[in-house]
């Protein structure tokens, strides 16, 4: 599992859907349709929005939070310290954005009421991560990839089996790019090769840039 920006591993406590535990049924439970509907499901269908729109809206929310971070918050690695809320409040807020996106992705996949819909939602988030990468929002790419690598999602073998070859290949490329191996060497090489004039970086930026925390 990928680490969240504050250096602590993500911990998800969601339960594996029934359709992944039993081959006899695709529904999440034996409850009736009315019991399965939550307020969120009534007012918002995650599949009604395109990956482009999700990527754009996520980036619009991430950008001002990232821009508010002060240089001293990064140079001191303040978000990893006990007094992080006072020494690096904006970096902490940026970490919170990471966690919000990750938990949102996990929740929406697990809340899908059938195996088919769950696979469609999983596909949607893989394509959203690709669009985020195209927009140079590496912070959100890592948030989505971390969510998809988390145990509650990774173990949904029946759901992953329904993905198209294209979606599987896209996710494998994103996993490869965002790997923390060799101090995020692939990510650093990618940034260099793209000649990025601007991007929203993963918060572990000091490691990504090879800079020590002082």
Report on this structure:
Helix content is about 60%, strand content about 0%. Helix 7 runs antiparallel to helix 8. It is an all-alpha fold and about 210 residues long. The chain is globular.
Gist of the model:
By secondary structure, the chain is mainly alpha-helical.
Could you outline the blueprint of secondary structure elements for this entry?
Blueprint: H1 18-21, H2 33-36, H3 39-43, H4 51-67, H5 71-75, H6 84-87, H7 89-110, H8 115-134, H9 138-149, H10 151-154, H11 157-161, H12 165-177, H13 181-194, H14 205-208
Helix pairs in contact: 4-7, 4-8, 7-8, 7-9, 8-9, 8-12
- SSE succession: HHHHHHHHHHHHHH
Shape: globular
How many strands?
0
Report, as a whole number of angstroms, the end-to-end distance.
27 Å
Number of helices: 14
β-strand percent reads under 5%
> What is the rounded Rg?
18 Å
Mean pLDDT: 79
User: What level of helicity do the residues show?
Assistant: 55-70%
The oligomeric state is: single chain
Low-pLDDT windows of residues: 1-13, 23-37, 210-214
The secondary structure category is: mainly alpha
Q: What is the makeup of the main sheet?
A: none
């Amino acid at each position: 599992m990928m680490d969240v920006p504050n250096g602590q591993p993500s911990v998800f406590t969601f339960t594996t859907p029934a359709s992944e535990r039993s081959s006899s049924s695709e529904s999440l439970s034996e409850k009736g349709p009315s019991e399965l509907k939550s307020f969120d499901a009534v007012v918002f269908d995650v599949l009604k929005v395109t990956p482009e729109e999700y990527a754009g809206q996520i980036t619009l929310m991430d950008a001002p939070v990232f821009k508010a971070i002060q240089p001293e918050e990064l140079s001191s690695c303040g978000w990893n310290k006990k007094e992080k809320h006072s020494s690096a409040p904006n970096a902490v807020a940026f970490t919170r954005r990471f966690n919000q996106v990750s938990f949102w992705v996990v929740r929406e996949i697990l809340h899908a009421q059938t195996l088919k819909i769950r696979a469609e939602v999983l596909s949607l988030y893989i394509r959203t991560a690709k669009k985020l990468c195209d927009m140079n929002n590496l912070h959100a790419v890592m948030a989505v990839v971390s969510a998809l690598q988390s145990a509650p999602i990774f173990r949904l073998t029946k759901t992953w089996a329904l993905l198209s070859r294209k979606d599987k290949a896209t996710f494998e490329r994103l996993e490869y790019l965002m790997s923390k191996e060799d101090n995020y060497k692939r990510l650093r090489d990618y940034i260099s090769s793209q000649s990025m004039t601007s991007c929203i970086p993963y918060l572990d930026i000091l490691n990504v840039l090879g800079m020590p925390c002082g």
